[in-house]
Amino acid sequence: MIKLMLVGSTHTLDVIKVLLNESAIDASISKEETQPDVTIYEIDSVQTLFKTPKSFTTPAFLFITNNNKELLDNVKSYAVNGLLFPPLTTVGIMSKITNLSLMKPSKIKKEEYEVTRIKIIAKSESIPPLPALAQELIKLTRDDSTSITQLTDSIKMDQGISTAIVKLVNSPFYGIKQDISSIDRATALLGFNSIKNIAIASSMNSYYLKNFSMYKTTGNEMWKHSYNVACIAQIIGRQLELDHDSLYLAGLLHDIGKVVLVDFLQKPVNYIEDEQNQIGFDHAEIGSTILEKWALASEVTDAVKTHHDFNANTFGKILYFANKIDNNKESADEIIREMQLVFGITDSNIVSKKILAAINDDNEVFR
Ligand SMILES: [Fe+2]
Ligand SMILES: [Fe+2]
Fold first, then answer.
1. Phi-psi map region of 322: left, alpha, beta (phi>0 left; psi -120 to 50 alpha)
2. Domain tally for the chain?
3. Does 43 reside within a domain?
4. Which of 42, 138, 231, 361 is deepest in the core (most CB within 10 A)?
5. Span from the CA of 254 to the centroid of ligand 2 (angstroms)
6. Ligand 1 being an ion, which residues bring their Cβ within 5 A of it?
7. Whether residue 174 is found in the same domain as residue 274
8. How far away, in angstroms, is 85 Cα from ligand 2 center?
9. Mean pLDDT over residues 307-317, rounded?
10. Is residue 45 assigned to a domain?
11. Does 211 map to a domain?
12. Which residues partner with 127 through β-bridges?
């Protein structure tokens, strides 16, 4: 049983009680709990916010019911695990709680985990490294001296990737009204940097040509999800003037650990905790092990390792939100708002429009 405590109104308490009753997870809430697993602070005014502690010993969330600017500006100095906004929903609350690893640990012995771990690491050695073209393109991120013609030429040599690029640049996300049929034309219109990133995404298709039913999804959906997360991470990175190329790459690779882990799962997985309970660790950890072997930049590897952790460093936290936005399209607006508050993004309309365009883009290349 997960014990929640609310610091707030009786009305909110009643609302959350009803929502918890509708959920499949065993959880309770009250206003007084000696050892709560999670505390929710209802914030209805700046005064209430200022009375709330800024750091917490157990997981804590702020439920913000007032759009006052001063209040919103101050929220980011609170070291909470996440924010909630009205209307509260069962899915909204549950997705927060289940991200906290509060589930009961399984009964599998440590030694059994160790054996599986060794097997999984051995398996991760056998996953083919990034395709040569992708590696060449990633290197270009750090080296401006490579000639563009030279690189478009090597992209053109790969028929599959060229076709995928042409299909992608014609998607609404890129907003080009005319029909683009060649790599040269696409490069002229979108710029080499975009084409390079699209080519890297296209070359990763090969990792997703397997059965992902244990994750209740398909390879094509996994690939599309990775691409969406990459695009969202890049949008946020650009806005914050961070290295958006690395964020894009981290987004593309954030769930690469699932490619290996899926072969070891005995039961379907809903949450990352299910992986931990079944085999002792999760796809974020194994993903970062794979990327370390590929000798990718440590900021990419670290971001992948922490992409399910709200308290990660900036890159990891960007992936955390990008992943969450794409996985919860119905509540994307709310998660984008939370992300903007956390990062102090004020230009919010443009950013959220771009992100919504990225997740709602249904490109045939991923079908
Ligand atoms: Fe993930
Ligand atoms: Fe993901």
1. alpha
2. 2
3. yes
4. 231
5. 6
6. 255
7. yes
8. 23
9. 93
10. yes
11. yes
12. none
